[in-house]
Design a protein that fits this description.
Largest sheet: 7 strands, mixed, barrel
Order of helices and strands: EEHEEEEEEEEEEHEEEEEEEHEH
Structural class: alpha+beta
Radius of gyration: 20 Å
Number of strands: 20
Helix content: 10-25%
Mean pLDDT: 94
Oligomer: single chain
Strand content: 25-35%
Low-confidence stretches: none
Length: 317
């Protein structure tokens, strides 16, 4: 057993990936940014512990994780509604949790939501790779504990910093915790090839529900609902963006996500805003959702507020 400062995972869960803010400046190499799917929950986990914005945390999909700590430290778990137990005793989510060397921590399958985020005081001590990031990109074999894109495995040991100064036992107020059960309306910036979508098609898109299908992963969210019929032929392939809504030949929209392909030739109706993507990342297949148009200015203000809050230094509340 590894006794170096860190966490040793006896149960790695269904899909647990080290994620940070994503790798930048690599799309020209055919690589997407990756990074945390629910950036809001990921950022809160780090903020609780005074970790700088961008610090790696563990993205745990569908729970089922167990680990042993080999140091006295603090952790925070946000995102999906799982049950967290330390040595068999329940501990709250969205809060700072104190653990000691030898403590065993277990996360159940989620009751609500999909993805949990485990942050540790000082961050996991994993060397960044391409794009100055350790974000795990399984399809391309990049990032993660050994920079090979491998999801967390049984017996893996994530090193932690043993000398980090403790933080206050704070928690996130209920008013700031997202409700993953509420009706989902995704904000969309109409853009790209919007001129290929007649008013009648846009009316169909924005005034009808769509269902999140099982063919949804970190690459994209495939939807089922009223088919959309854009004008014109398929386009020459061009760069894609996070949240872009592609409409393929069958008319069923696809929202491109963190591990998306970097180019595509389908017409794009617009882009889902980053904050709405956070909410989408926590919804299970079968979820009904709608879309609502917003202006670029509205989306920019929302993103600036997010970054201003989570990148601020000084006292954290």
């Amino acid at each position: 057993m590894n006794t170096q400062p860190g966490l040793t995972f006896t149960k790695p869960g269904f899909l647990s990936l080290l994620q940070d803010g994503g790798r930048q400046g690599v799309m020209h190499l055919g690589l997407a940014t990756g990074g945390a799917m629910d950036r809001n929950a990921w950022a809160w986990a780090n903020r609780l512990l005074d970790n700088p914005f961008g610090t790696p945390a563990l993205e745990i999909t569908f729970g089922g994780v167990e680990f042993t700590s080999h140091l006295a430290t603090q952790i925070a778990i946000t995102g999906a509604e799982v049950q967290c137990r330390v040595n068999g005793e329940s501990r709250p989510l969205w809060s700072v949790i104190n653990i000691q060397a030898g403590d065993r921590v277990a996360l159940s399958a989620p009751k609500v939501g999909i993805r949990s985020y485990l942050a540790v005081l000082g961050g996991f001590q994993v060397a960044p790779g391409l794009g100055n990031s350790c974000a795990t990109f399984t399809r391309e074999g990049l990032g993660g504990l050994n920079q090979d894109g491998r999801p967390l495995q049984e017996g893996d040991h994530l090193p932690c910093h043993a000398g980090s100064a403790r933080v206050l036992n704070r928690k996130v107020s209920e008013r700031w915790r997202p409700d993953y059960k509420e009706e989902l309306a995704l904000s969309v910036i109409p853009c790209a090839q919007i001129d290929r979508f007649p008013a009648s098609v846009l009316d169909t898109f924005f005034n009808n529900p769509y269902t999140l299908t099982r063919q949804t992963d970190r690459m994209g969210a495939r939807l089922k609902g009223p088919a959309l019929e854009p004008l014109g032929e398929r386009l020459i392939s061009e760069g894609t963006s996070l949240g872009a809504i592609q409409v393929p030949a069958d008319g069923q929209p696809i929202v491109l996500l963190n591990d998306r392909q970097t180019i595509g030739g389908y017409p794009k109706l617009g882009a889902v805003t980053p904050r709405s993507l956070d909410a989408l990342a926590q919804r299970t297949p079968g979820t009904t959702l709608r879309f609502r148009p917003v202006t670029l200015h509205e989306a920019q203000v929302e993103e600036r507020q997010f970054l201003s809050f989570f990148t601020a230094t000084g006292n954290r509340r």
